[in-house]
Structure formats: C-alpha cells, structure tokens
Design brief:
- With about 90 residues, this protein is of the alpha+beta class.
- It has one domain.
- It is built from three helices and four strands, in the order βαααβββ.
- The chain has a two-stranded antiparallel sheet. It has a two-stranded antiparallel sheet with strand order 3-4.
- Strand 3 and strand 4 form a beta hairpin.
- The N and C termini lie close together (about 10 Å).
Length: about 90
C-alpha cells in the first residue's frame, strides 16, 4: 500500500522535518556540534531524492490486511480491516 508523509519545504534545511518528528529532534540534540553537522548534511543529501518543487514526500510503506478473529471463547466473531506501518 503506497503511502507518503508529505511536508512543505520552506528552505534548503531540515528544520521543518526536525520540528515534525520528535525522534529526529531528540537524536540531533544528543550529538556533538560536529556530529550534528555531519548528520544534518547526510539527511539533506538523502532527502533530496524525495523532494518535489515545494514538498518533501517520504515513502511510508504499509501492509493492509483483513481478517476474522474469534474472541472470548463465546463464538463471537469480529471482522475488521487493519493497516500497519511497515
């Protein structure tokens, strides 16, 4: 199932992305200044492949499944569709 996380590109840096993802912000804050600079450049280099004119579209593959589950041992059947990020 093709999904994408789209974020507006405001400049050539990744400040919008840093503000949008808690893990990235925490990872960068924990680094030395020199390491942070190198990580920042590596991220920018990789993200260039996903940039359009004004949007960054990061692929977010997912698995769509449908199933039937018996619950509670009482013969109760639940039917549903679930989407899991992969």
């Amino acid at each position: 199932m093709p999904l994408a996380f789209a974020i507006a590109i405001m400049s050539s840096d990744i400040s919008n992305l840093e503000k949008s993802t808690v893990r990235l912000a925490m990872l960068l804050q924990a680094q030395s200044s020199a390491a942070r600079s190198g990580i920042h450049q590596a991220i920018c280099d990789k993200l260039a492949a996903f940039a359009t004119q004004d949007t960054l579209r990061l692929p977010m593959p997912a698995i769509l499944e449908r199933g039937v589950k018996r619950s509670g041992g009482r013969g109760e059947i639940k039917d549903g569709i679930h989407c899991f990020a992969h």
